[in-house]
């Protein structure tokens, strides 16, 4: 995609995104590109500054990097999820049915993990059955 700074014959500036320079030319020739302010179809490209890496952009990218406390929190969550999985029975698609059996005393108390649709989860909660989703933790390489 190419981003162009555009202006109309009335001096209004705006941006447009196009798949190619030819796509821009085709759309302008067909009067498909119009000014969002005045609807003029007389539109042209303006000079654009090149994309330059600045200190502000670098700071914004660094803000996306996890600090040590965040890394430790993710590691603890990873351990917690692992422990839950190791100490619970995975009943898969039967989760709603098995959770109800335990809740109503038809089966022994035990930890369960499995799958439920959003509707099934809401129904379980409405019945007073305590459930919670397991968090999906990104792997270390992500």
SSE-based structural type:
alpha+beta
What is the H/E string?
Answer: EEHEHHEHEH
Strand content: 15-25%
Radius of gyration: 28 Å
Could you list the spans in which at least 5 consecutive residues all have pLDDT below 50? none
Could you say how many structural domains there are in total?
2
Percent helix, as a range, is 25-40%
Sheet with the most strands, sense and barrel status: 3 strands, antiparallel
Short description:
With 142 residues, the chain is an alpha+beta fold. It has helices at 21-29, 55-63, 68-86, 95-103, 118-126, and strands at residues 2-8, 13-18, 43-45, 89-92, 112-114.
Write up this protein:
- With 142 residues, the protein is α+β, with helices and mostly antiparallel strands.
- It has 2 domains: 2-45, no CATH class; 68-126, no CATH class.
- The protein is 39% helix and 16% strand.
- It is built from 5 helices and 5 strands; from the N terminus they run E-E-H-E-H-H-E-H-E-H.
- The strands form 2 sheets. The protein has a 3-stranded antiparallel β-sheet with strand order 2-1-3. The protein has a two-stranded parallel sheet with strand order 4-5.
- Strand 1 and strand 2 (13-18) form a beta hairpin.
- The mean pLDDT is 87.
List keywords for this structure.
5 strands; three-stranded antiparallel sheet; 39% helix; two-stranded parallel sheet; 142 residues; elongated
Reconstruct the topology from this structure.
Layout: E1 2-8, E2 13-18, H1 21-29, E3 43-45, H2 55-63, H3 68-86, E4 89-92, H4 95-103, E5 112-114, H5 118-126
Parallel strand pairs: 4-5
Antiparallel strand pairs: 1-2, 1-3
